TrEMBL record:
This is TetR/AcrR family transcriptional regulator. It comes from Limosilactobacillus rudii. One of its GO terms (biological process) is regulation of DNA-templated transcription. Gene3D superfamilies: Tetracycline Repressor, domain 2 (1.10.357.10). Residues 18-78 form the HTH tetR-type domain.
Length: 205
């Protein structure tokens, strides 16, 4: 899971496309993640990519379109891999331990990009379209969570996929905000506490 962005960068490097388009995509991904979407102008992208600003508009209708073209394949790969590597033969405690440690590692490793995603869902209609597909599309995250619920009868079966997702992701996101945004040091037992909170929320009748 933690290799999603690395895999995408490698795919982009090896993709058969015009050199100018590839440079624009590679540079935009770095600048958007590091500086934010709104702080990154097409002029900055062009300068760092070593192309003219006209080259950007040759391949993309707008800066929003450029962002959407970057988000789509990354979100699709995250969606396809979010639960695909889970061992459903593990008991619920082992499962939650794996999800918490693996997903926190993924978010921590790719925090700048994750922050970009969270910002753009609020303001960018094209980005919002891909988020909708991520959660609700064919084999989307909510569909995968429904399969997870069915595989573990100890999970409260009256919980909806959205409630289960919130129970799992909520404590993880708060932990990331605590350590990455607010720079509050984590305690040694924070992750074990998070895992117990999630299990309690999922199994409480």
């Amino acid at each position: 899971m933690s290799q999603v962005l690395t895999n995408y960068r490698e795919q982009l490097e090896n993709a058969k496309m015009p050199a100018g388009k590839k440079k624009v995509l590679q540079t935009a991904l770095t600048l958007f993640a590091n500086n934010g979407f709104h702080a990154t102008t097409t002029a900055k992208i062009a300068k760092q990519a070593g192309v003219s600003e006209g080259t950007i508009y040759k391949y993309f209708n707008s800066k929003d379109d450029l962002l959407a073209k970057l988000l789509q394949p990354i979100l699709l790969e995250i969606k396809d891999n979010f639960f695909s590597d889970i061992d459903y033969s593990a008991d619920l405690t082992e499962l939650i331990h794996f999800i918490v440690t693996d997903r926190i590692h993924f978010i921590d490793t790719n925090f700048d990009f994750i922050r970009l995603l969270m910002q753009e869902i609020l303001t960018n209609k094209l980005a919002n379209q891909y988020y909708t597909e991520f959660f609700n599309g064919n084999k989307g995250t909510l569909h995968q969570i429904a399969e997870l619920r069915a595989a573990y009868p100890e999970i409260n079966q009256s919980l909806t996929p959205v409630q289960i997702l919130r129970s799992i992701i909520g404590p993880v996101i708060i932990y990331i905000f605590q350590t990455k945004l607010f720079q509050i040091p984590a305690a040694d037992n924070d992750l074990s506490i998070i895992e117990r909170q999630i299990i309690n929320n999922l199994t409480k009748k």
